[in-house]
Automatic annotation (TrEMBL):
It comes from Sulfurovum riftiae. Gene3D superfamilies: Cytochrome c-like domain. Residues 20-107 form the Cytochrome c domain. GO terms for molecular function: electron transfer activity; heme binding; metal ion binding. Keywords: Heme, Iron, Metal-binding. It holds the Pfam family Cytochrome_CBB3. InterPro entries: Cyt_c-like_dom, Cyt_c-like_dom_sf. This is Cytochrome C oxidase subunit III. It comes from the Bacteria.
């Protein structure tokens, strides 16, 4: 009986996940299928210059878009659709939700400020 009481604390915590939902989203954002989202979308989803080049029309900039205000549905569609530049990742909806939730939590302060600005501008 004493042995069972010793194991009780382990049984209580056995139902917890190995990593949190936030950590899972962060991991997927960092390396979803070998190519980091941050390479083009920035560390927080703010968008980033991928490359600058010149052609016959002058200087050009290829930029990854800011995805901080994207909806979950839009992100699911983007990640699982064909694009000329962005690779197709074949992520499940749950994996995209983890990335979306990670970005929402990471950018909570930014999103609140922009929402406040939109609210006061429309009043």
């Amino acid at each position: 009986m004493k042995r069972l009481l010793f194991l009780f604390p382990f049984l209580v915590w056995a139902n917890e996940d190995f990593i949190s939902h936030y950590e899972y989203g962060e991991m997927l954002y960092s390396q979803p299928r070998g190519v980091s989202c941050a390479e083009c979308h920035g560390e927080s989803g703010e968008g980033k210059i991928i490359v600058e080049f010149r052609d016959i029309h002058g200087k050009k900039v290829l930029r990854g878009p800011d995805i901080r205000k994207e909806s979950l549905a839009s992100m699911i569609n983007s990640v699982n659709s064909y694009h000329k530049i962005m690779p197709r990742y074949y992520l499940t909806d749950e994996e995209v939700r983890a990335i979306y939730d990670y970005l929402q939590e990471k950018n909570e302060e930014y999103l609140c400020k922009t929402d406040e600005g939109n609210t006061s501008a429309s009043e």
